[in-house]
Design a protein that fits this description.
Helices cover 54% and strands 5% of the residues. By secondary structure, it is mainly alpha-helical. The protein folds into two domains: 153 residues, no CATH class; 89 residues, no CATH class. The protein has a three-stranded antiparallel β-sheet with strand order 1-3-2, with helices on one face. The longest helix is centred in the middle third of the chain and has 32 residues.
């Protein structure tokens, strides 16, 4: 799916593994009660939701592992889908060892999917989803807010760029390219300007030392935004020296939601 959406010729191992887990999350609710082709269908839709919703969610929330798409979105789909596809025969076979014949007969009449003539089961599944969200969401939000106030769940942008090995453990991991093992302040930084100040001619030919970030606060004079500019320099350092090699391409580029211009190198 990602190969079609992104027009790539290779697939992502990360998305493939996440899609498999999302499919498992989706079918977990109705696994004993649905037919095998239906189970494959529910799992496949869970994988599709992981890819599509994961790409949308990450633009709003920094969910790097796609946990929301895998567990919440795909799991919710699985709960609702169970209400449509529960087979009364499988339901009966599953509960025969646990219920008396009279109770089982009554429950089988109600516990059948919408496509098997039942209406109570899909309604019950939907109500259950609302109940679970209503119980868990306030609790989890309170836990997140509490721990964020106590220990600060997110590190600073500088820590993200330099790496936690340096900020928290006093060193660099051996897997980090040697080119990153330098003081960021020692790098010769390009001059920062507002992107609107660059003429078309300058964009076309450009100066090799110019990189222009578009940011509302950077429209002011450079000397009025030293802290912000320092942070942008760090972002540029990570972007430029990622994997120890120059990966910036000429032209207008996007990085972390900001647009900047890179002239011909």
């Amino acid at each position: 799916l990602e190969m079609v959406m992104e027009k790539k010729r290779i697939f992502s191992i990360e998305l493939a593994a996440g899609g498999t887990l999302a499919g498992l999350s989706a079918i977990s609710a109705g696994a004993p009660f649905v037919e095998s082709p239906i189970a494959a269908f529910i799992g496949a839709i869970g994988g599709v939701l992981h890819v599509t919703c994961g790409k949308a969610i990450v633009k709003v929330i920094d969910d790097t592992s796609s946990a929301i798409a895998i567990h919440f979105i795909a799991g919710t789909w699985g709960l609702i889908a169970t209400g449509f596809f529960v087979n009364p025969y499988y339901y009966r076979e599953y509960f025969i060892p646990h219920l008396s014949s009279e109770v089982l007969e009554v429950r089988t009449e109600f516990c059948r999917g919408l496509f098997y003539g039942g209406l109570a089961q899909p309604v019950a599944q939907f109500v259950f989803v609302i109940f679970v969200i209503g119980v868990t969401l306030p609790y989890m939000l309170s836990v997140i807010v509490f721990f964020n106030e106590v220990v600060q769940l997110r590190v600073s942008p500088e820590s993200e760029i330099d790496g936690l090995d340096r900020h928290y453990f006093g060193g660099l991991h051996e897997s980090i390219p040697p080119r990153l093992n330098m003081s960021l302040n020692a790098v010769t930084w390009p001059s920062f300007q507002d992107v609107s100040q660059v003429s078309d001619a300058q964009k076309k030919c450009g100066e090799t030392s110019s990189v222009i970030f578009e940011c509302k606060k950077l429209t002011k004079k450079v000397d009025q935004g030293e802290e912000l500019i320092t942070r942008e320099k760090r972002l540029y350092a990570k972007f430029k020296y990622d994997s120890g090699c120059l990966i910036v391409k000429p032209g207008v580029q996007m990085f972390r939601g900001k647009k900047f211009y890179v002239p011909g190198m």
